[in-house]
Design brief:
- Helices cover 61% and strands 6% of the residues.
- It has a two-stranded antiparallel ribbon with strand order 1-2.
- A hairpin with a 5-residue loop joins strand 1 and strand 2.
- Helix 3 crosses helix 4, helix 3 runs parallel beside helix 5 and helix 4 packs across helix 5.
């Protein structure tokens, strides 16, 4: 039994190794982590820096262990999503925003945040429109973004757009690059 426990511990960085890794973070990596936090927190009315700090806190307090086989950006992204998932479970009230695109199609977006008010809802609606405007020149990319906002599954998006798996993955890379380029400081910081 002791051997399997030791083997399990060896899969994760020790607190000393975590401290070393965090102290070695360069500006490029921190910028990448901030971009990831900005994208993940966009719909949740949260400060990306706060979410990033939550990950650091969980790591340093040993509430979250970092597997040695995960790259820092993947680990941070997964941990941020886990934190948000736990927050969503705590917060059951939902605000729905209804808007329409240029074709008159209704878009419904739900935001799990009981503290949101009308001004924040209007701001979010404007931000959604700004994001969709990034893809005016690419109808398929715009359809994918709208579909994701409507919580469509990958299979539904493939059917909607007529893309195969490889084309779908390539298109999402383009979408992420365009959004990251436009909102390099985080989505809300650009408005």
């Amino acid at each position: 039994m002791f051997g399997s426990e030791l083997s399990e511990l060896m899969k994760y960085y020790s607190i000393e190794e975590v401290n070393d890794k965090l102290s070695e973070l360069d500006d490029a990596t921190l910028t990448k982590l901030r971009k990831i936090a900005g994208i993940i927190t966009y719909y949740y009315n949260l400060n990306p820096e706060d979410l990033l700090q939550d990950v650091f806190d969980k790591l340093l307090s040993e509430k979250r262990r970092w597997p040695k086989d995960l790259d820092i950006s993947v680990f941070f992204k997964n941990t941020m999503k886990s934190i948000l998932s736990n927050e969503k479970k705590k917060d059951q009230k939902v605000l729905s925003l209804h808007s329409t695109n240029e074709n008159g199609d209704e878009l419904v977006n739900t935001i799990p945040d009981k503290r949101i008010d009308i001004e924040q809802g209007i701001l979010l609606d404007q931000e959604i429109k700004a994001i969709l405007n990034l893809f005016e020149d690419d109808v398929i990319a715009k359809d994918l973004v709208e579909g994701r906002m409507e919580n469509l599954k990958k299979s539904e998006l493939l059917e909607l757009t007529g893309l195969n798996e490889k084309e779908y993955d390539t298109k999402w890379k383009k979408i992420r690059r365009r959004i990251a380029k436009k909102y390099s400081g985080g989505w809300r910081n650009e408005q």
